[in-house]
Design brief:
With 245 residues, the chain is α/β, with parallel strands linked by helices. 21% of the residues lie in helices and 33% in strands.
C-alpha cells in the first residue's frame, strides 16, 4: 500500500483549462503510483502556522515518473483553491498525501463497457480513467456524459475532442445547461433519466458506471441508472458539496 505520509510536491507546470479551472503538474519524489479515480489531500501552512487542507482528485493517468496532475476549480471564498490559482508559481512547493481511496477506481483490465457521468469539475477523476484507458490500450467501449454550464466551462475540451476522434471506442456526449454554442443540436438541460437512457443505448446495460459531480446530480444519476436496469454494484459514485475549496 502506498504511503499516506505528507510529502512535499514541487510545481512543474500550471495550465489554464477554463477561466476558473487550472491544472497543476507536480513532481512528487518517492511517489509510488496511483489508480485512476483516487485523490490526494493538499495542505497549505501560513506563516503564522495556520493550516488548511482540501482533497483533490488526481487528473493524470498512472505513470512511473513520480509525477501527478491536479485539476483545481477556483472557489471564490475557499481557503485553498484561491491560493493555488492566484499565488502559486513554478517551483513552489506544498504538502500532499496520498493516493487515497480504493472504491471509486477503474482497472483497465476490465472488459465491460465504461459509462462515465460528470458535472463540472466532477470530470477530473473520470479523465484519469479516460487517460489510463488510452495509455493501457484498453479496448473497452467508453462513453462520457458531461454536463457543463457553457462551452467555455468544458474542462479538457481540446483533449476530449482529440481522444474522441481516435476511433478507439471513446464517445463524448455533452450537455450545456445555460449557454449553448451556435447551431447546437445536442442536449441543453441538466442530466436526467431520459438522457441517461439514451446514453445507455450506446453502452449497453453491462456497463460499469462511474458518476462524479455535485451531490444532486450524483444522487439523481445513480437512481436513474438503477431504475434503467443496472445493479447497484455496477454504479460507483463520488460527490462534492457546495462548500470547500
Amino acid at each position: 500500500m502506498a504511503s499516506i505520509n505528507w510529502q512535499l510536491a514541487t510545481v512543474t507546470a500550471i495550465h489554464a483549462e477554463t477561466p476558473h479551472v487550472k491544472t497543476i503538474s507536480l513532481s512528487v519524489p518517492g511517489w509510488t503510483g496511483h489508480r485512476p479515480g483516487q485523490h490526494v489531500d493538499v495542505r497549505l501552512t501560513a506563516e503564522d502556522g495556520y493550516q488548511a487542507e482540501r482533497s483533490y482528485s488526481i487528473a493524470s493517468a498512472p505513470n512511473d515518473q513520480h509525477t501527478i496532475e491536479l485539476t483545481v476549480e477556483r472557489v471564490p471564498d475557499g481557503e485553498v483553491s484561491p491560493f493555488l490559482h492566484d499565488e502559486l508559481v513554478l517551483a513552489d512547493r506544498f504538502e500532499l498525501r496520498g493516493p487515497i481511496g480504493g472504491y471509486f477506481v477503474w482497472d483497465a483490465a476490465a472488459a465491460d463497457p465504461l459509462l462515465l457521468i460528470s458535472g463540472g469539475s466532477g470530470v477530473v477523476p473520470l479523465m484519469a480513467m479516460i487517460r489510463h484507458r488510452v495509455r493501457a490500450g484498453s479496448a473497452a467501449p467508453c462513453t462520457l456524459l458531461y454536463s457543463s454550464r457553457s462551452p467555455d466551462d468544458v474542462i479538457y475540451a481540446g483533449e476530449l475532442q482529440q481522444l474522441a476522434g481516435r476511433g478507439d471506442g471513446l464517445r463524448v456526449v455533452e450537455t450545456f445547461t445555460r449557454v449553448q454554442p451556435p447551431g447546437w443540436t445536442g442536449y441543453a438541460r441538466r442530466i436526467d433519466q431520459a438522457m441517461i437512457e439514451d446514453v445507455l443505448e450506446m453502452t449497453g446495460r453491462m456497463a460499469q458506471a462511474f458518476v462524479c459531480g455535485p451531490t444532486p446530480l450524483v444522487e439523481s444519476a445513480a437512481q436513474a441508472l438503477v431504475a434503467l436496469g443496472l445493479t447497484p454494484s455496477q454504479v460507483k459514485t463520488e460527490r462534492f458539496g457546495p462548500s470547500g475549496g
